[in-house]
Please model this.
Amino acid sequence: MAKTILELTLNGQPREDAVADNTLLIDYLREVTGHTGTKMGCDGGECGACTVLVDGKPRLSCLCMASSCKGRHVETVEGCSESGRLSILQKAFNEQLGTQCGYCTPGMIMAAEGLLRENPKPSKNEIRQALGGNICRCTGYVKIIEAVQTAAGEMS
Model:
């Protein structure tokens, strides 16, 4: 199996790893770097649990080859915390009860993070649209949307 040297920035830290050419980004993150916050849900780009940010934009890591991230900035849910403390968005998810089982939460947070960077004051409809690729089987999404709205209010 051919390998490539993958140089990227992961959660603000430069990395250089030898990875097989057919390595998915999610497998690289979980197995090589130990960033297990990114979850494998459907393995087919249907659920959004594996959402990470690549150069600030949400991307499904189960559909993305690790090698396509060469020279890019990749962010996982682990990179959201600030000095070991929850980010405003993570805290809002916790306080607004935006999680149930928590499996979808990392992907939801990363999709919401991408939205809030692009649109710091999104409407409910814009939040729904941004999170539309993320499936939660436990909630009715109401608390998730409220969490994003709360975070947006605190960030502005």
